[in-house]
Amino acid sequence: YFSLAYDVDSEPELRTLIDNGQARAGLIIPPDFEALTQSGETAEVAFILDGSDPNVASTSLAAATLIGQAFSTRLAIERLTPLGAASAGSSPVEVRARVWYNPDLESAFFMIPALIGMILQLLTSLLTATAIVRERERGTIEQLIVTPIRSGELVLAKIIPYTLIAFLNTLEILVIGTLWFGVPIRGGLGLLLLLSGLFLAGSLGVGLFVSTVAKTQQEAIMLVYFTMLPTIFLSGFFFPLAAMPPVLRAVSYGIPLRHYLIIIRSVLLKGVGASALTGEIVALAIFGAVMLGAAALRFRKRLD
Fold first, then answer.
1. Phi-psi group of 85: left, alpha or beta (phi > 0 → left; psi -120 to 50 → alpha; rest → beta)
2. Is the pLDDT of residue 205 over 80?
3. 187: containing domain
4. CA distance to 185, 188, 290, per residue, from 103 (Å)
């Protein structure tokens, strides 16, 4: 179940790996481990878990407990009992679990940040797409085109209100999650809102692009929901990314919600800074630039 990826010399190094998402768990073995086991005393090892994903943490804890018990039993038979006789003494090895960031493995700590990401993407892309298509259905967009308003100003006028609504919903869910469910906010709120804006840029680009393809509001709604289904299942919203097949895990790197969920969970639960999220920030920036650029080109072509 476990794979040895790093060998560190201190707990701060392990914390850095877990904060950066490079490790999900760590085993701290005391320097006198062998001496304790050979002398018949109990040796304690610390098993550190990243509790930001309760499902993975609980499964890892169960697996580590079984491995520790099996190793302790084998050690008792091989080293501490003469002629293989069972010993009534204490266990040679005791595994002490320590769960960081979510000690009680509360599922709300995992789901509420995910809900924020899903609502942000669905709300901005859906409202943006339907708002522009609605203008086209009513025939008012042609009237707006002949006015001195530029196409960019027209688009901004349509997306800014929905962006503000999305930010207000984000703050509302954060307040409810903190006061009602006890979800901590260990990182900077300003950093979270800034990176949420970067995520919204991609969602707005999706909404604008859909508005250039759909001819009716019903088509726009169906297209947005069509894009949301793979987004939810491939983003780590419900299922751990590590449990996915390699092909789907590779595809998930192109899903912006995947990167945003890593960002929001890391900022809220771990309190990390932007330096630990460089890969996710770059991915969101690239996706936002591509989607907004493609939507702008297609939207300008439709207006012409």
1. beta
2. yes
3. 107-303
4. 15, 21, 40
